[in-house]
Predict the 3D structure of the following.
Amino acid sequence: MSIPRLPVALAPLLLSLPGFATVLDDVGYTALAAQLGAALPTGAGVRVSQIEAPVDLNGNPAWLPDPTHPELVGKTINDQSGAVQGVYSAHATGVALRFYGNSWLAPGIGTIDAWEVNDWLGPSVLLAGTGFRPFAWPGRIANHSWAGATNGLDGEVLRRVDWLIDSEEFLQVVGLSNGATNPPLMSGAYNVIAVGVSDGTHGLGTAAVDAIYTGGRVRPDLVVPQGTTSDATPVVAGAAALLISHAQANPGLANDPLASSVVTSSGGLIYNPARSETVKAMLMAAARRETANTTGSDIVDYRASAVNQAPNGADLRFGAGQLDIARAFQVLAAGEQNSAEDLPAGNGDVGSAGFDFDPAFGGAAGSNTLATYRLPVSTSPRRLAAALVWNLRIDGGSRFRFDGTATAFDLDLQLLDATDPANPVEVARPAADWQHNSELLWLDLQPGHSYWLRVLPGAAQGAFQHDYALAWIIDELPPDADGDGVPDANDNCIQIANPGQGDADGDGYGNPCDADLDNDGFVNFADLGLFRLAFGSSDPVADFDESGFVNFADLAIMRTAFGAPPGPSGLAP
């Protein structure tokens, strides 16, 4: 039977070519390489796919990367869609460099399947527009640096993509639009990792397709400090390959009492830390919510304003934050750590970093609907970042009849202060519903307090059985004696007698540690106006962290103080 190609309105995303080292520094790869040396994972053994929108090159459609490029020497690039010999796409080549180039995050990737997107969506893999189930392709990660829509088949395509990820562990990393809105494909799928850029100049949310693939869900999941989403997406795909290669080479990192691995229908043995939900959870938990990039595009006000606070605990502009592969590897290397209810050796006591994949949460008659993880106690200030991820389930039907029925679940991530374990008190619980299949926490932990992370069904969730992945990392915070958000090592405020008391340095506004610039006893719009006049200068009046320059770090301090009277150091407590 001949299967027709699927007509798709699409376009490759824009691509630029900034310097390599800058991006690798900013996403934590340089630090990880220095830490691990020769033990650094390379993505070796991970088979990947690159799906590209065709571009016209002298009348010929081009979608293949140039295999003669020095960064791609030694790679086996399998043309799966029948390209004209010797016709290569500059866009595809740029994506390839960042995904599996010899100087990037996953240089060990050796086998790449290259597809033209219409062919991949239609006759070769997804089989959209037919009654057949998608092919169980033996790949692990696919990169989609394109965005588009079909003529009436968007919902079917999204279901098929989500089925591949959930049932076959075929992770799909997709780019957002570089415009204000996102078309349905591919960011509308639930189980993908959707990627934007760190300056926020990408499409936000999802397009409305049907009752399951609703509009306005949180997108992106992660951001990368690149100029376009085509640049950013393969960096995340490469990071995922690095994690998967290490997880597969170290099966001892899996430690679930029920099942530590799964075998896909194509015969792939996938260990728990390499499963799609786990990789996504690790990357999201480890993401940076505050950055100091060499590119100049920084996240400085993550969830600071209510308008950017997504119900699942993310920031509407930045998702979970900026990719940090060094922190994600730290989470992976800590190994799988089970909940108290799964009765592991540690009885629910977990470390300062780690993950868990629960393959059968819920159970008959609600027999397994609570998972508790007891975090370590510390005498110093700490900050917790955690990500709970679960897939949308799609009924694949049979080989000759794709069903496509979608089942959405509603799980909650909760933090409890259990200093009094007989009476734990809820500290945080995102308010997301079934339309969000991830929940995030990012908050400070008090010294000396005991905390529990918990996974439990949402209020509207009925009887169910499904899987989830949870990842977390706890950072020790540097000392901050006056609580103004500036570490003591960089804070001269704490050395000034009576800080915040009037005009200590005689400059007519207040001392350099005082965000109340006009000394009216309140930090308000008048002070913000004065601060904006000083921004970009070396004016000590507004140089709150005394770095010698008034910049985004000072703006973050001003925003913290805004709307409150000066605290002990002249900033809001």
Remarks:
- The radius of gyration is 25 Å.
- The chain has three domains: 8-326, 337-476, 488-561.
